[in-house]
Amino acid sequence: MKVLNVFGTRPQYIKLFPVCRVLKKNRHENVLVDTGQHYDETLSGVFLDELDIPAVDYDLDVRSGSHGAQTGRMLAAIEGIIDEEEPDAVIVYGDTNSTLAAAIATAKLSPTLAHVESGTRSYNRRMPEELNRIMTDHISDLLYAPIDRAIENLEREGITEGVVLTGDVMFDAIQWAREYVTETNGGVLDELPVDPGEFVLTTVHRPRNTDDGERLRTILETLDEHPLPVVFPAHPRVRNRIEALGLDERLSEDFHLIEPVGYLDFVRLLAGAERVATDSGGAQKEAFMLETPCVTLREETEWDGTVESGWNRLVGADRELIREALSENGDRPPQPDIFGDGRAAERIVGAIEDG
Ligand code: UD1
Ligand code: UDP
């Protein structure tokens, strides 16, 4: 079987690598297409090395741009690659512009279009990701649902054919990372002036929180007021905004604004944090998987199960809600099994093999 994988942003390297391992184990041909949507070393190259992803076959180097221009450049290039490679299937991941571009290119040609992380919904159509998910799901042949609720969401939109419950491939990834991240292996934690269990880890990169300066200022100020130190590996999108608005100059010494870190270091930070405050989709799930309470800096989430279980709180950019959620203590309820058994990648490849 010949499979083409398309990816190009940080979370997609992480969703990709468990699938690459299974493709290799089952001796399938794996053609890798990196759109280059993310191009800074800290958002892309670092993962290729660390996660042992095989050499990329096509590097499209599309870089940043408006949604239409960026998606269009990818679409044209991917179409040419599919024509040339004639794969049996194309796998796309998540909800980025790279996902949508590859989906459109594939759906009009003959390979099977397989969508990893299908059926998740925030029900907020102002998010570009929500539109990317909906459009991709409606043209996919194989829809890999990470959680039960994704299947219900798809049913509500009339999609029942080709849906496969796989579990979450990010759970596969974190099982692997856990083996490397031990107490004797401090990584980034050795370089920061914070103690395990006594800092808040934060990430912010959604346009809603970065483009709106007032929201961004409220989030940073409220985190900084909290008694524990804060570690913030900042995506370039938010770092640019923080600097442009001069917010960095107002942060205390206990607020550690650092470069984005590699996956293993991020897992170390997630596991070591007293709490996570984030607007990332992936980090919400990973916090849950590592049993670190999460405060989500959004009004809604695709991962309702983490909220319903008591391990995640939705606070938006509301100062009072952020304060309360950061200080909330007490025993957490036992975690329900939401994200599967760590064998999502096997099911993803298996469904194509069964084709
Ligand atoms: C993208 C995804 C988002 C995902 C995120 C993961 C879309 C619509 N958004 O958001 O779903 O959560 O990736 O991190 O696909 N930039 C750099 N260096 C880079 C890449 C980006 O400096 O390597 C800066 C540029 O100023 C760029 C901005 O970040 O304009 C936004 O990049 P873009 O890829 O459009 O979206 P993300 O915010 O990264
Ligand atoms: N991540 C990382 N280093 C960082 C921040 C995040 O490796 O400095 C990883 C994190 O473990 C998760 C993924 O990046 O797997 C999440 O990416 P991001 O928050 O950019 O995107 P989203 O999940 O919101 O689409």
Brief characterization of the structure:
The protein is an alpha/beta fold. It is built from 16 helices and 13 strands.
The spatial strand order of the largest sheet comes to: 3-2-1-4-5-6-7
Tally the helices: what do you get?
16
Number of strands: 13
Bound molecules: uridine-diphosphate-N-acetylglucosamine, uridine-5'-diphosphate
Mean pLDDT: 97
Identify the overall geometry: globular
* CATH level-two architecture of the largest domain: 3-Layer(aba) Sandwich
The parts where pLDDT drops under 50 for at least 5 residues are: none
How large is the radius of gyration?
Answer: 20 Å
Distance between the termini: 10 Å
Number of domains: 2
How is the CATH topology of the largest domain named?
Rossmann fold
Using the coordinates above, name the CATH class of the largest domain: Alpha Beta
Biggest β-sheet strands, sense, barrel: 7 strands, parallel
The structure class reads: alpha/beta
